[in-house]
Amino acid sequence: MKRVLRLLLLGGMLGAFVFGTRFLIIGNTFEVRSEKGDEGAAEKNDRTEKIVKRIPKETPRQLPLENPPKIIRAIYLTAWSAGNPATIDNVIVRVKDSEINAVVIDIKDHTGVLSYRADIEEVNRMNAWESRIKDVNGVIKKLHDAGIYVIARITVFQDPMLTVWRPDLAIHDTRKISSSTPISSSTIWLDNHKAGWLDPAARPAWEYVAAIAKDASSRGFDELNFDYIRFPSDAGLQYTHFLSWDENTRRETAIRNFFSYLRQELPNVVISADVFGQTTVTYTSDMGIGQVLEDAYDYFDVTSPMLYPSHYVKNFLGLDNAAARPYEVVKFSMEHALKRLRNTATSTRERAKIRPWLQDFDLGGVPYTPEMVRAQIEATKDAMGASYAGYYLWDPSNTYTWSALKRESLQ
User: Fold this and answer.
1) How distant is the alpha carbon of residue 351 from its chain centre?
2) Where do the domains of the chain lie?
3) Surface-to-core class of residue 120, CB atoms within 10 Å of its CB (0-12 exposed, 13-18 middle, 19+ buried)
4) Which CATH number among 3.40.1800.10, 3.40.50.10540, 3.10.560.10, 3.20.20.80 corresponds to the domain 72-410?
5) Residues 6+ apart with CB under 8 A from 334
6) What is the pLDDT of residues 50-98, one digit of tens each?
């Protein structure tokens, strides 16, 4: 009898607890809240506290730097480098003892993959993103807190992802097309790196790029840098077939139309355009890729010729080896770039800046020493004078010659 009474008493106590208590489930946690009042509500389950703290929170979107530096001196980082907290911490430490005040980060590189998750319909539909930078807003904040200017680099018309997903926007290979093999993802023209290219005249491709650019701008990037804004230049161009470009319209007109569209879509955003280094000294040709220096001046805040001496023909300027003579190559190219800007000045071009990409990598058997890296920077300053706007430094491995970038060199 006593056992029965004990069971009934235990059951009553359990029932009272159930009816006198609310159960709340939040995500992967569950919390018990007492009905007794404020004192009871304030008593939280220790297990709940620990679990809630483990749920990651996304860093809010940032704003661009309120007072960005007038002269930008940047290094380039891959998305993988930018997504590594230790690398970002190291860059911040290095910057303190150098003249560098900016970084360029890949958010869409030659793979066509977006470096972080974003609410962009087309990107998500074709799963064209990878969590290379897990908290891009947090990276921007961390760099901004250190006073570092942050630039997003976007590869445009070289895009192995979108070309396969939307072959109607791609350049195709006439050798692969036949009556039994109609145009499809299997007939895409590939460059020397086996990557597909978008037709530069395909309007939906423009809209796709603009969507990515707008998302990046909304996250607080201080500048958007556009690369591969051109027709392809690799071997096998005689086999290219376009679905949007009519092949009668000049290539430079097609590229200029894209420049105009981009400026209209991003009216209040700082945008920069990467162009071949040789465009600075090519006056009567688009080099077969659609790039004309003056067109970039018209639509971009910054024009960025890629002045890697190792990429010039060996006997450029009558030199024995242009790669080994960085000062001469960069100074000559920048002088012509500035001359062309001044000779065709308009209200738009008066605001335009020239900020070159410089070399900090070895190529063609010429190791780049600290003196050679520094020579390019000095050549840029000497050529530009009062119009000097800085530089971007390129090394695909992100191992920079910091001894050439010491802060005292600013003096």
Assistant:
1) 23
2) 2-54, 72-410
3) middle
4) 3.20.20.80
5) 280, 305, 307, 354, 356, 379, 380, 383, 384
6) 434 344 578 999 999 999 999 999 999 999 999 999 999 999 999 999 9
